[in-house]
Amino acid sequence: MVLDAALALADESGLDAVTMQAVASRLGVTPMAIYRHVGDKGALLDGVVERLLGEVRLPSEALPWPDRLRATARGVRRIGQRHPGVFPLVLQRLVATPAALRVRDTVQRGLVDAGVDPGRTAQAERLISTAVLGFVVSEVGGRFRNHSKRTVDGDFERLLELLSGLLESERAQPARWS
């Protein structure tokens, strides 16, 4: 309930509007009541990220790795489009909540299946996720507002093609991620 209120407040008024006082006011309780549920504002923001990433529908593990990774990226993008004022938090908060770890682990499993050395999957995931998240944050932040939806959609798909191509080349030259 607290996280839902914080997410709704952020969706309506932006991240700056998310304060313990504002969330408490929205729920009709005192700010101290909020602190009992989330501890502090950092935990509140982590919880909002948890809510966001919890909305990502993860693909079936039965799909081939390229399809899984693309579907995960598209799912993350849909969440960004649904929550544009809040989505930049995913680049600002540590990956520490169960939903965030669930998305990260899905990407890492896909990378192992793609042939990335298991000792290098964490690095590969950070780089690939940052590229995808950076695109989505740029998109929802208005960087591409002078481009048509078709162009932006095409650019996102091209990004996914480029990332898949890098992973394919990794299969041929494993030392690339060193």
Backbone structural class: mainly alpha
Which CATH architecture of the largest domain would you pick?
A: Orthogonal Bundle
- Looking at the structure, the CATH topology of the largest domain is Tetracycline Repressor, domain 2
Low-pLDDT runs: none
**How many helical elements?**
9
- H/E series: HHHHHHHHH
CATH class of the largest domain: Mainly Alpha
Overall geometric form? globular
Mean pLDDT: 91
* Percent helix: 55-70%
In percent, how much strand structure appears in the residues? under 5%
The Cα radius of gyration reads: 18 Å
Structure summary, number of beta strands: 0
Considering the protein shown, what is the CATH homologous superfamily of the largest domain? Tetracycline Repressor, domain 2
- Number of folding domains? 2
